[in-house]
Every structure is written in C-alpha cells, then in structure tokens.
Amino acid sequence: MNSESSRYSPVPISATSADVAELNKLVRRGARALNEQFDEDTHLNKVIPKPWGYEYRAYVDEFFDFWALHIDAAHGTSMHVHPRKLTYLICLGGQGVTSGLAKEVPVREGTILRITPGAFHGTRNAGNEPLELIEVEVPRNKFDLMRLKDDYDRVGTAYEATSLEEPEHSMQKVTAFPNTHMRRRTPNGKFRFDLRTGMDIFYRRRSEDIFYIPLCVSGVVYSDVEILTGHEGDKRRPQTDKQYLCISKNF
Fold it and tell me: Which residues, given as ranges, of the chain have pLDDT below 70?
C-alpha cells in the first residue's frame, strides 16, 4: 500500500478473541441477532428517536444500508456488536471517541473506521456540538445487533420499533435502480446525498464533497469498500464504471 492510500485508509476495529468470548456469553444468555424483513419493517425508513439523539436511513438497496447518526453532546451509543455485518463509520462533523473492548479511536470530521463483524464498539460525543456520523453497513440487516453495555437500560432489547415522520426530506424511490431508496437531504439540512457515476466524480469534484462511497456488489462479496474523500490531498481516482453515493455539505 502506498503512502497516499494509507493516509486515507480506515482505522480498523477488528474482532479479537475477547470479542468472540463476550459474544458467546451474550448468546448463552439468550441474546439474539434478528433479521430485517425488507418489505415489512417500513418504520426503518423514518427517523428513529434514540436516548442519545436520533438516527435515520440515508440510502438503502438490497445490499447496502447507510444510516446517519446525530449524537447529542455528552451522550453516546451502547457498546454493541453486529455479528454478521461489516460497518464503516465515517464522521461528517463534531468530535467523539469510538471504543472497542481494547482500544479507543478519536473521531472528528473526515475520520473513517472499519469495524469488522463481531467487533464490539460504541461511540460517544466528546465535544460541545452534535456528533454527525454515517454508518455504511453491508450486508443490509438493521436488526443484526446485540448490546453489551448501555447507559439507557437497553441491554438485551431489540432495535427500536418507534419512529417519527420526516416528510420534508423523506426516503424516496430511486427509479433507475430496483429496490433502492434514498434521502436527498438530512433533516437538519446540513448535508446532501447524491448518486453520481465515477466518471462524473472524476471530471467534476466539488469543494463541498466530503465522501464518495462505491455501491458495488464486489464491496459486499469481498467485504472491502474503498471510501474516497473529498479532501484535496486525496488523489485516488474513482472507478469510472461504478456508481457512488456522494455525501456533501449543503451550503
């Protein structure tokens, strides 16, 4: 790996024997990782209130699931695990800390974390402003979740069933792609989501762009999604034959 690639590579949080041991304890106590029913669990396309803030879907298809997290100051998610899915955690703004069982990683605008299946993790807002994150989850399954520790008494509970309507920037069908929905703006209006080809990005990078995530089946099959950044120092080229979700600041 050359220095240019390594500079923008995700920070790994990988499952260890300690993670496997804790997961085994949860399973023996009766904890379950459930399965999302794509055509039935429609409340997942709305805003999900959380004791630490709220989260909402930004994009979803048959394989990829993008969730935006808004974590209020002095709050944090549970220490939890996704036994079956790979997660990339990318920071749009704010400051925080993501903790595994044996390490902590500072999080700020531009940070990318790669969290393997089976690796416990939790993220806390360490600043005075909201911490804005995107979780890129593959393969799609929102209910692949077990909580180990939680400040809000949710250990042993399933993913939230309560949701709120957000009609102004709701999830919409993407007519060009089967079984695909996306949100054009964040509810607070700070960020924008666009589908763009690699060719378009190659010739038309924009100053407001933050991240480009390739929506390719190979990323799911090989558990490797090369997330490009909008940073002027990131000279990596998008693959011109791929479709990308572009995340931008909404000036």
Answer: 1-6
